[in-house]
Amino acid sequence: MTALCIIGSGMVSAVGLTAPASCAAIRCAIDNFQETRFIDQGGEWLIAASVPLEQPWRGRIKLLKMAARAIAEALQSTPGVDPEKTPLLLGVAEAERPGRLDGLDRRLLQDIEAELGLRFHPDSTVIARGRVSAAVALLNARTLIYQGGHRHVLVAGVDSFLCGPTLAAFEERERLLTSENSNGFIPGEGAAAVVLAAPVASATPQLACIGLGFGVEKATVEAEDIPLRAEGLTRAVRAALGEAGCGLEQMDYRLTDISGEQYYFKEASLALSRTLRVRKEFFHLWHPADCIGEVGAAIGPAMLAVALAASRKGYGEGPNIFCHLGNDAGERAVALLSYQTVRAA
């Protein structure tokens, strides 16, 4: 196992325009859910979590502004990072997302570079895997650092559900929380970024990703004819634990992308029952989406930023964090984090 350390972060969310502000609000369970100008099928205003930027941008330009702000903050929080030598792995909405902006992948990286006035390493790429984009980026970052010789890798995600076609499609599928449906998510938007590096010997603790695992769930959230057994998430958990060489009981708390739908809570419970072999009195579940809404591809880096803040400020429930993510296509991912000191060999 080749560990990766999260050494800096940036975030733009409905509850804060910086990582410290967003993480503080999430810690205090503060949300910014407000009525939108979209109307649900019951004739009521849809509730959403929008990012209050200085101008009422929408669509691609807002994605660009949010991503650039989060990336700039992550770079500023980590002195010594040279953007030209640092690949940017950018997570965005999956290709099959209803209402997805046309050509989202094609020039977004170049537009972000132009907005920031800098260039990233040519190994930069867009990962269109929705909520699991960050986990895929962690896997790719490991290769870039340990085989490609890069000192740093920047992992970011930006997404928004606040467009008419997307909201209409998810409401039609009974996926949104509306006046007529209590089993749904509150749509949101945002961006987050983290800087990754290899661990270095230091007396100061570092937040390291010590295990990654992936799986595929056939009984997806919209599959009606396949019983849910959480086989994909269970496989991902076991793979991550095997890579880290530990048991799930050694993790102190859970951090997840769950945003309100019963399906994903049920899946998490089933996977836990199949993988936790030692009884734990408490194994609390943290889900930032209850403050920032469903933010799609931005949730992975946002979770890492929350984990970093909780670890550094000492309000986490322990040094070991069990993170899991999953998208609507059935892809599942698990990342095990540990806040620990690294000794010289």
Structure notes:
The chain has 345 residues and is an alpha/beta fold. The protein is 32% helix and 24% strand. It contains nine helices and twelve strands. Helix 1 (19-27) packs across helix 9 and helix 6 (231-244) packs across helix 7. It starts with a strand and ends with a strand. The model has no long low-confidence stretch (mean pLDDT 96).
Superfamily (CATH H level) name of the largest domain = Thiolase/Chalcone synthase
Number of strands: 12
What is the count of DSSP helices, taking H or I runs of 4+ residues?
Answer: 9
**Distance separating the two termini:** 16 Å
Could you give a short account of the major beta sheet? Answer: 10 strands, mixed
> Helical content, roughly?
25-40%
| Sequence stretches where pLDDT stays below 50 over 5 or more residues | none
Overall morphology: globular
Which structural class fits the helix and strand makeup? Answer: alpha/beta
Question: What is the CATH architecture descriptor of the largest domain?
Answer: 3-Layer(aba) Sandwich
Please render the helix and strand layout as text.
Layout: E1 4-12, H1 19-27, E2 34-39, E3 45-48, H2 59-76, E4 88-91, H3 104-116, E5 125-127, H4 133-146, E6 152-160, H5 164-172, E7 189-197, E8 202-216, H6 231-244, E9 253-256, H7 262-275, E10 285-286, H8 289-292, H9 299-313, E11 320-326, E12 331-342
Parallel strand pairs: 4-5, 4-6, 9-10, 9-11
Antiparallel strand pairs: 1-7, 1-8, 2-3, 6-7, 8-12, 11-12
Helix pairs in contact: 1-9, 2-3, 6-7
